[in-house]
Amino acid sequence: MGRAVTVATCALNQWALDFEGNLERIFRSIDIAKSKGARYRLGPELEICGYGCSDHYYESDTLLHSFQVLEKLLESPATQDIICDVGMPVLHRNVRYNCRVIFLNKKILLIRPKISLANTGNYRELRWFTPWSKARHVEEYFLPRIIQEVTGQETVPFGDAVLATTDTCLGAEICEELWAPNSPHIEMGLDGVEIFTNSSGSHHVLRKAHARVDLVNSATAKNGGIYILANQKGCDGDRLYYDGCAMISMNGETVAQGSQFSLDDVEVLVATLDLEDVRSYRAEISSRNLAASKVTPYPRVKVNFALSCPDDVAVPTCMPIQWRHHSPEEEISLGPACWLWDYLRRSKQAGFLLPLSGGIDSSATACIVYSMCHQVCLAVKNGNADVLADARRIVNDETYIPEDPREFCKRVFTTCYMASENSSQDTCNRAKLLAEQIGSYHINLNIDAAVKAVVGIFSVVTGRSPRFSVYGGSSRESLALQNVQARIRMVLAYLFAQLTLWARGMPGGLLVLGSANVDESLRGYLTKYDCSSADINPIGGISKTDLKNFIQYCIENFQLTALRSIMSAPPTAELEPLVDGQVAQTDEADMGMTYAELSVYGKLRKVAKAGPYSMFCKLINMWKEICTPREVASKVKHFFRMYSVNRHKMTTLTPSYHAENYSPDDNRFDLRPFLYNTSWSWQFRCIDKQVKAL
């Protein structure tokens, strides 16, 4: 009797609409799985076309090319003698479904549509797909002619069913279904399904990985069974980084763990597990067995194939392992770095340019690029031929081998300190020292001539000369003069990104990196179209508090001692005149709130869904030891005024790495008006009424 089953799952760095590359990575994963003895291979959600196709799902081309890729998979000898479970969109009776297509030896066994669609936060699956609402119901699906010619089948089962092999029973879940309160694995497990599979398109959020792992382990802790999870990894053309973490669990314990962050395009996990361990685990759970005796059975698709071998008594099986989670600082070091590498190589640019101010935010961005260089050198050292080929193409040298992160950084990373008469020597020195320690190609320039030229045009036209507040000017004049400096820096950043390599006799252009953090974006503490305007921003979804902790991590792990003085300096925009040669302007004084307070406001506004009144009600208890109700009311009102006045800036926010659940990204995550009644008269009156009562 066969009892030891060998199964494989994978994390693939798929790219939306890259059918050629996606097919190649799927084939590689199948080859690896077979070479390790697997009899079943699970891939990520919508892996054939790539998860992030968005409105391209509406196009018939996306469906056509997905079936063309499926045709290649079906007819290939590589997919023989292994059950392959792949993801793609399918049109059934003129309705689009997000599906798993499960096949074996040129025969499609089952097309299983997704039942619970992800439709919160960054997910918009209900825009493109319809959930399958017919529980335990199967229909006939008429195959396209190109598939019929390969399989010899006219129709195949389509719907909510499970696979019954000669030795076990498998049931599929798709991503969101694991997170749903009525997950299919509950009823499937009660109906005798022993192996649950989950193909995911789950993206990285700081401190989220443990939730996914806990859900997988708890799925089999109460019900017994084997749970196999596959996930996409990498940047597939959007703000999200899919963070792998493929895993296999049995009876509530992890037995195989994949990496959360790596530059490997294909990662395959294989585990051999004893089915009798599942059966004996379930045998003593009487409550489970009582429920199982009353469950409505699933339609079973019979498969004349075994995941085990008949003589497998001596086959070693996998033992439980302890899951290792990254710290938030490690996540910031690795996740955005891998995202940047994918964006760089897939955009076919020659590197990055960063306006480096000597402050925490731009320094953190520089450290993430440096971490990327570390990851590239490590991947090459470990024999990753794909990374080596990409690195050689980026630096335009077919013999190059990246071995030293600082040397590689010099080739792909340009930093630029843009001084003005309002800049201090301290920030100039900090930027220069950090650039030396990470190895970037560093430029020092002065923008005063350009600023004077622009302001001079205004003075010639109007006959008026604006002045800073310290010289007797109004707040309007002072803000306009600050914004001119900031916007000149953006223009110069793009000029140098386009022509720096040309001036150095090298081919290609550079991507401009932004460095506004999530808290500043929420508050709107940035100039529209300044250096926050860039091609991409690796820290746009990360809070100031987390960035400070990340800077400390870089001091300790990368030995970047230049960061110590950057950490100790108060954050400043350096846009107002110096006083006695020293910086007089600080960010928190300008904003009228601290970064710590901003993080609290952000989480209450987005995660807790709090408007002004609800936020006030929550904060009078949270801050009762440090603030009176009247002070809380003042703070809440000031935040909502500033947030609403500046919300229009989010419409042009640079595409940023998504890392926080309170991100104000206006693209699709945080959908709000950008023209508010900033008096909030009704809401603030409710607050005032409560303050008076208290």
UniProtKB/TrEMBL annotation:
Listed GO biological process terms: 'de novo' NAD+ biosynthetic process from L-tryptophan
Record's keyword annotation contains Cell inner membrane: no
InterPro entries reported for this sequence: C-N_Hydrolase, C-N_Hydrolase_sf, Gln-dep_NAD_synthase, NAD/GMP_synthase, NAD_synthase, Rossmann-like_a/b/a_fold
Enzyme class: ligase
Keyword terms, alphabetized: ATP-binding, Ligase, NAD, Nucleotide-binding
Pathway listed: Cofactor biosynthesis; NAD(+) biosynthesis; NAD(+) from deamido-NAD(+) (L-Gln route): step 1/1
A cellular-component GO term for this protein: cytosol
Enzyme Commission identifier(s): 6.3.5.1
Every CN hydrolase domain range: 5-275
SUPFAM superfamilies documented for this protein: Adenine nucleotide alpha hydrolases-like, Carbon-nitrogen hydrolase
Superkingdom: Eukaryota
GO MF annotations in UniProt: ATP binding; glutaminase activity; NAD+ synthase (glutamine-hydrolyzing) activity
Pfam families, alphabetized: CN_hydrolase, NAD_synthase
HAMAP family xrefs: NadE_glutamine_dep (MF_02090)
Similarity comment text for this entry: In the C-terminal section; belongs to the NAD synthetase family.
Subunit-level organization: Homohexamer.
Name of the protein this chain belongs to: Glutamine-dependent NAD(+) synthetase
Protein's organism: Sylvietta virens (Green crombec)
Source taxonomy: Eukaryota, Metazoa, Chordata, Craniata, Vertebrata
